[in-house]
Amino acid sequence: MWLRSIGFKLIASVGAVAILVIGVFSYVNLKSQREQLLHEMIRNVHLVSEVIRRSLRYDMLEYQPGRLHKAIDTIGAQEGIEKVRIFNALGEIIYSSDRGEMGTMLDKSAEQCYACHAKEKPFERLTTSARTRIFRSQRGYRVLGIINPIYNEPDCSTSDCHVHPAQQKVLGVLDIDIGLAEVDLLSERNKRKMLLFALVAICCIAGIIAFLIQRFVNRPVRRLVEGTERVTEGDRETVISISSRDEMGILAQSFNQMTQRLKISEDELKASEEKYRSLFENDPNPIFVIDVESFHILDMNIRAMETYGYSREEFLDLSFLELCEPKEAEKIQTLAARSCIFLPNIRHRKKDGAALYVNIHSCPRLHIGRDVIIANIADITDRIQVEAQLIQAGKMATLGEMSAGVAHELNQPLNAIRVGCEYFLKLVARKQPVSEEILGRVSKELVSQVERASSIINHLREFGRKSKFEELQYVDINTPIRGVFTVLGQQFKLRQIEIQLDLQEGLPPVMGVLNRLEQVFLNLVMNARDAIEEKQDNNTGEISESRLTIRSCQDGNNVVVTVSDSGIGLPETLKERVFEPFFTTKEVGRGTGLGLSISYGIVKDCGGNIEVESEEGRGTTFKLTFPAAREPHP
After folding, report:
1. What is the pLDDT of residues 589-616, one digit of tens each?
2. Secondary structure class of 134 (helix, strand, coil)
3. Which of 159, 349, 466, 568 is most deeply packed, by most CB within 10 A?
4. In what side-by-side order are the strands of the sheet with 498-503?
5. What are the E-state strand segments in 516-618?
6. Which residues pair with 357 in a beta bridge?
7. Is the pTM of this model over 0.70?
C-alpha cells in the first residue's frame, strides 16, 4: 500500500532527481579535478625537464661524459622519477639512468620518437601536449613521460670539440619518465571523498524531503483520506482540521464545504424521496415502475395492489405484459420503451380473472440509476360501462324515432301477405279451382314478403343488441352504411329524398363493432333527413333539392366516408358545439342531443376522427376518417 502512496512517489521522484544531479555533479567535478591535477603535473614535469636540460648544458657543451652520467644517475635516483635518458639525433640512447639501455637504438615509431617523426620530415618545434605521453609501467601504474628537444646552439656548432653542422637544428632529446602512482592515489582518495559526500548529501536531502513530505503532504493527505472514508461510510458530520493556508488547507476547506453541501443535498433528497413516495403511494391511480428491457415490475403503489388484487410480492414476480392481452402486450412492448405514450382502452386482467379497462400513460425515465418505465394506469371500466349504457340508450332512442318508418317498412310485406291470403279465401268461397301456376306464383310472393319482414326484424334485433367494446373486429365500412337503408330506404322514397350511394368496393377493413358503426351512420342519416325536411318546410311554395349523398374511398392508409345532405345547414357559431352532449337544434321532444355525441365517442373508440363542414342554407357534410387495418392472413 505504501508503494502507491503519494508521499513515497514524491520521495522517490525527488530522490531520483537528487541522485542524478549529485551524481552528474560529482562525475564532472572528479573529472575536472583529475584533468587539472594532470595538467599541473605535466607543467611541473616540463619545468623539471627544462631545469635538467639547462643544468646539463655546460657538461654537454664541454663534452664531460663522466659528469653527465653522474648527474643523470643522481637525478634518476630521485623519488618519483622513473628514468632519465638522452637520445642523439639517430635515436641512440647515449645517456640513461638505466645503464643497461645505453647504446641501444630506438625505432622512430617508438613512443618517444613518434611525436617528432610522425611525418616524413621531422618536427623541429613541438607543443607541450605533443611532447607528453602517458603509459603503463611494467608494475601496472601510470607513468608520465615528457621529451625535451636539445637544439643546436651557435656555441655548440662553432666549438672545436663538436662536429655538428649549423644546419642541424636538433641534436638530441632529453626524455624524463615520472611515475603517477601518487597522483592516481590522490585522485582515488578524492573520488572516494566525493562519493561519500554525494551519499551523505543524498541521504540528508532524502531525509529532509521525507520529513517535509510527511509534515506537509502525508499527514494532510491521510486526514483527507480518513475523512473521505468516514463520509463514504455515511458520516456527514466529518470535519477535516487542517489549518495551513497552502493547497492542502484549501483542499480541506473545500472538502468540508462539499461535505456540508452533501449533507444538505441528502436531506433535500430524503425529503424529496419522502414526498415522491407519499405522492406515489397516495395517487388515486395505479402506478407501476417497470424495467425498460424485461418489463418486469419493480415497484407499485398501494392503489395498484387494491385495483388488481395482487400482493406486492406477487407483483414483483410478474411482468407488466402479463396483465395485458397478447396483442396489446406486443404493442406496449414495441412503443413504451422508446418514448412517452398514451394507450387508451387497454384491457387488463385482475388476479381473479375479471376484466379491467384502463388508459395507460407511460414514460421512460432514469430512476435510482436504472432505466425504467413509469406507467400511470387510469381505470376506465366504469366509464366504459356507462358509455355502453349510454350507447344502448341512444340505440333505443333511435329505434323509437324510427318506429314510424319501421312500421311502414313492415306494413308493406304484411299488406302483400294479406292480399294473397284474401285472394285464396275468395277462391275457396267460390269453390273455384286454382291453377298450379297461379298457386306457385302467389305462394312464392308470400314467401318473399315474409323473408323481407323477417330480415327487417332480424336487422332491428341485431342493431338493438348490446355490444361490448372488446368485440372489435374487422369491418367493411360499406356494410353498416347499406344496413341503414335496409330499415330506412323506403321511408326516404316516400319523403322524396334522393339517395346517392357512391361506395368504393374492395376497401381495406377498419377495426370496429358493426352495430355501433351502423348506429353512427343511422344517427347521421336521420339528422340529414330532419335537416332536409326542415328546409322543405321553410321553403313553402319553392322547389328545393332534396338529396343525401354518401361516399366511401381510400385515402392513403385511411378509409374515408363523407355523409352530405342538402338540408338547412348550421350557422358558423354552432358548428363547434354539434358534438357536445345534449346539444340539439331540433324542437323540444324531437331529439335528445346525444346522437352526435355518442357517434363521436364511437368513432374515437375505433381510432378514427369525425369532422363537420356546414354552410347555412346549403347543407352539411360529415367526414369520418378511420385507419385502415391489415386483415390477417387465414
Report:
1. 455 455 677 788 888 888 899 998 988 8
2. strand
3. 568
4. 498-503, 547-555, 558-565, 619-627, 609-615
5. 547-555, 558-565, 609-615
6. 347
7. no
